[in-house]
């Protein structure tokens, strides 16, 4: 259904991966460029075909310059459940909107896109010929047409039960493609400097889009690792900085994560990663620092905080302490000024992160982070809460049959006051999430059970 006013209808062709992440990405990007996602937008659950109402073609193009969840966008001219319905819809589309793209001096071609079915060349030609009632006056040019039109047919989501006729048929003018090629061009496999937990390129860009990162923003990652999230933010023109407790990672020292390479090279570091992609001018710096004891002066600095905290699986959860933090009975080192590495409970880590975001984000700035969960015990009440932050989205990525991580996006809606620092202790959300302090043990108990089950099956 079209919205009242001057909004135009567009068809968005979505990628069929990270399904839960798609809607929050599109909503966030529309709001960045002046559009708005309303309840009357037509989305079809897991379907790749979405109909959106967008104020202008410029906004549609800007959306596609950012999204990695969408493949293409089309100005929708017609839509039906059958060919007859499609033709009726096309005949009712305003001719004055068609004419600029169909005049005699123009060149064009018509493409066929089918989802969950392959058509023969003969079937494709038949569908194109059936559109001869449209007032095309230009010449066909298959190599470099000025305008591209598409017939898109949806045969459902079940590859084992493909219907004879499509569920929906769309016709529209192609506007632009999304940024799917970024997933390959920024692939971790090609990255100069990587670690054991370097973030997948596609997810890095999704996180950046959820955070509404834009040109000249200041973006911070308190668990920076090898800087994958900084790279994605810098690609969109943001200035980036971060901290990490691991001295070797920050300085690019120690053992390499690559196979057949023992030690990291002299130029394997975060700055070199940004240099690799021509983004070094956006790199501010990365510091060795403890996320539980931020060294920043009071103030609001960051437009976005994007991070992937350690879960204690491949990277340990640590914070710095002092000799007096060591339990009695354990021998102390003589150099009392040397920091001691202490365990850092997941619940404490996340509430420290939320407090830090509430203190340092600008109003309207976003915090985007991963929350590991043990799925048999997970409920929405376990998502950490803060009075200065509003939950925007919560998307699941499965890690195993019994564990997952959830991409949490929050927006700062209130200025931080000192009394807000411990308000989470009064929240109903605090106690439930403390159960996830044992996420590591639960993760490996599940792995152990699975291995035992597989061994039992192999011996039967």
UniProtKB/TrEMBL annotation:
Its main location: cytoplasm. Its EC number is 2.1.1.214. Residues 190-320 form the Ribosomal RNA large subunit methyltransferase K/L-like methyltransferase domain. The keyword Signal does not apply. SUPFAM superfamilies: S-adenosyl-L-methionine-dependent methyltransferases. Keywords: Cytoplasm, Methyltransferase, RNA-binding, S-adenosyl-L-methionine, Transferase, tRNA processing, tRNA-binding. PROSITE patterns: N6_MTASE, SAM_MT_TRM11. It catalyses: guanosine(10) in tRNA + S-adenosyl-L-methionine = N(2)-methylguanosine(10) in tRNA + S-adenosyl-L-homocysteine + H(+). InterPro entries: DNA_methylase_N6_adenine_CS, RlmKL-like_Mtase, SAM-dependent_MTases_sf, TRMT11, TRMT11_N. GO terms for molecular function: tRNA (guanine(10)-N2)-methyltransferase activity; tRNA binding. GO terms for cellular component: cytoplasm; tRNA (m2G10) methyltransferase complex. Pfam families: Tmrp11_N, UPF0020. It is found in: Cytoplasm. The keyword Transit peptide does not apply. Residues 9-180 form the tRNA (guanine(10)-N(2))-methyltransferase TRMT11 N-terminal domain. GO terms for biological process: methylation; tRNA processing. Part of the heterodimeric TRMT11-TRM112 methyltransferase complex; this complex forms an active tRNA methyltransferase, where TRMT112 acts as an activator of the catalytic subunit TRMT11. Belongs to the class I-like SAM-binding methyltransferase superfamily. TRM11 methyltransferase family. Catalytic subunit of the TRMT11-TRM112 methyltransferase complex, that specifically mediates the S-adenosyl-L-methionine-dependent N(2)-methylation of guanosine nucleotide at position 10 (m2G10) in tRNAs. This is one of the major tRNA (guanine-N(2))-methyltransferases. This is tRNA (guanine(10)-N(2))-methyltransferase TRMT11. The lineage of its organism: Eukaryota, Metazoa, Chordata, Craniata, Vertebrata. The gene is Trmt11.
